[in-house]
Amino acid sequence: MRPRLTPTDTQRLVVRRYSPWRAPLTWGGLAVVVLLCLWGAFEVGRLRGGYSVVAAALDSRARAAEIAELRRRLSASDAKLAESEIARRVDREAYAQVGKSVAELQERLGVQGQELAFYRSIVDPNDQISGMRIQRLKVLPSTAPRHFRVRIVLVQAARQDAAVVAAVDFTVDGQLRGRAASLALAAIGTSSRVLNFSFRYFQELEAEIELPAQFTPQQLQIEVRPAKGATPIRQSYPWKIDTT
Question: At a CB cut-off of 8 Å and minimum separation 6, what does 46 contact?
C-alpha cells in the first residue's frame, strides 16, 4: 500500500515582504558614494596642484578684514574732509562778516571825519576867511524822472557874531538840442525861484529842479548875494549826481 503525501512534505510556501523604497535608496546611496569619490579625487588634484581649502578660507578672511579696514579708513577720511570743509566754510563766513563790519566801520568813520572837518572849518577855517562861503554842494536824484535836488551848505567862521542875511541863486549850464544853454533856477525850480536865508554859523539850503528831456547838464553856477550890498560869492561846480 502506497503512503499518502501531504502538501507540506513536497513544497514549502515562502512569503516575503517587498519594500518599494529599497531600490531608490540603494541607487541614491550609490550616487552619493560616487559624488564623494569624485569630490575626493577633485580635492586630491587641487592639493597636488598647490591649492588648499583651508589656506583659501584663511586668505579670504584676511582679504575681508583688509577690505573692512580700508572702508573704515575711507569713512574716517570722509569725516575729516567734511569737518575740514565745514571749518573752511565757517572761516569764510567769519572773514566775510569781519570784512563787512570793517567796511561799515570805515564808512562811519569817513562820515564822522567829514562831519568833523565840516565843523572844524566853521570854528577855525584853514584859509582864514572870516566871511561867508559855500562849504558843500550836492546834486541828488529825486523821485520823479528828470527831477533833482540841489543841496547847498553855507558857513561862516564861528567868531562872527552877526547873522548873515542873503539869497542864493544858480543856473545849470549844458547842451539843449545840441546847443549851449543856461537854465536859471526861476525857470527850472519846482517850488523855489530864489533861496533866501539868514544864519549865523552854517545853513543848508535845498531846491528841487526839473530839467528838460533833451537837456544835458554839465555844470552848476552858484551865486550868493548878501543883503547888505557886499560882494556876491560866485562859484562853479561840475554836474555830478551824488547817491549818498
Answer: 52, 53
Distance CA 199, CA 233 (A): 16
pLDDT of residue 173: 96
Does the pLDDT at position 79 exceed 70? yes
My answer on whether 110 and 156 are in the same domain is no
Query: ∠146-151-156 over CA atoms, to 5°?
Result: 160
Domains contained in the chain, number = 2
- Identify the domain containing residue 215 by its residue range: 132-238
Out of 102, 123, 144, pick the residue that ends a domain: 123
Confirm whether pTM is higher than 0.70: no
pLDDT tens-digit readout, 126-181: 544 556 788 889 999 998 999 999 999 888 765 556 677 888 899 999 999 889 99
Do residues 152 and 214 both lie within one domain?
yes
**180-189: long-range pairs with CB below 8 Å, 24+:** 181/215, 182/221, 183/211, 183/212, 183/215, 185/209
- Where residue 173 sits, what CATH number does that domain have? 2.60.40.10
Which residues partner with 151 through β-bridges?
138, 206
